[in-house]
Amino acid sequence: MIFDAMRLMQATLQDYISELEPTLGANPIVLIDNIALAEQLGGSNNQLNGHIVMGLVNLQEETTLKNAPYYRVENNRTIYKNPPISLNLFILFSVLHNQYETALRLLSRVIECFQAQTDISFSTSPAPGNISHDVQIIPDLYSLTFEQLNHLWGSLGGKQVPFVLYRVRLIAIEAEKRQAEVPIITEINAI
Q1: What pLDDT digit, counting tens, does each position of 47-96 carry?
Q2: Which segments of 97-174 are extended strands (E)?
Q3: What's the CA dihedral at 169, 175, 181, 184 to 10 degrees?
Q4: What is the percent of the chain with per-residue pLDDT over 70, rounded to a whole number?
Q5: Do 135 and 8 form a contact (C-beta atoms < 8 A)?
Q6: CA 163, 13, 55, 84 torsion: positive or negative?
Q7: Do 73 and 67 form a contact (C-beta atoms < 8 A)?
Q8: pLDDT, tens only, 9-42
Q9: Which backbone phi and psi does 19 adopt, to 5 degrees?
Q10: Where do the domains of the chain lie?
Q11: What is the DSSP string of 26-86?
Q12: Does residue 74 come out as left (phi exceeding 0), alpha (psi in the -120 to 50 range) or beta?
């Protein structure tokens, strides 16, 4: 589900930028990759240059949704199953480009895209066919303090480039394993 959510955001952003920036060519400009590898790959002359690199930098459990029931009723049977875990993903969009002006323009396009489309799902976005149909995400712009920025880029081991951080809400992960399955209780006999 995590990768499906990221692919859905990637496809949404790629389509948005392709419409507004036709001069960038038909090649994909939005990549899912690790921005920490940018320095390792050769600085500004690497394969990530000229792209928007999106990468997962943190996960957080959504504790407000933790009290889901451990059972469901399906087809007149009670199914006992652990409730899904709801996650918030923190996705960093970094723009690597030799021209700073172009990097800032592309960063603006990222923000515009997710401002225009606040609820992203398979039904509202043109997504590749290998994405799960039940993915629905809500991207929220997430601001960091200067201290947090220093820690983030320090942990990524690189120099700061134009970027924006989004918290993507409510990715539900659920295993298919059932704990038990029993018929519904329909009557009680008192002896």
Answers
A1: 778 889 999 999 998 877 777 777 777 788 887 877 778 889 999 999 98
A2: 120-121, 136-141, 163-173
A3: 10
A4: 80
A5: yes
A6: positive
A7: no
A8: 999 999 999 888 877 756 789 999 888 877 654 4
A9: -70, -45
A10: 2-175
A11: SS--EEE--GGGTTTTTGGGSTTTTEEEEEEEEEEE-GGG----SEEEETTEEEE-PPPEE
A12: beta
Alpha-carbon gap, residue 57 to 155, rounded angstroms = 10
**Would strands 180-183 and 77-80 be described as parallel, antiparallel, or unpaired?**
antiparallel
Is residue 138 within 8 Å of 79, Cβ to Cβ?
no
Angle between helix axes 100-116 and 2-20 (nearest 10 degrees) is 110
Nearest Cα to Cα of residue 163 among 148, 177, 179: 148
Contact 106, 17 (CB under 8 A): yes
H or E, element range at 105:
helix 100-116
pTM reported for the whole predicted model: 0.79
Q: Say which DSSP state 184 is in.
A: P
Give the Cα separation of 112 and 106 in Å (integer). Answer: 10
Among 98, 109, 93, 68, residue whose Cα is nearest residue 168? 93
**Quick one: tokens of 116?**
């225009």
**Do the bridges between strand 85-96 and strand 51-61 make them parallel or antiparallel, or are there none, so unpaired?**
antiparallel
Supply the Cα-derived Rg of the chain in whole angstroms.
Answer: 21
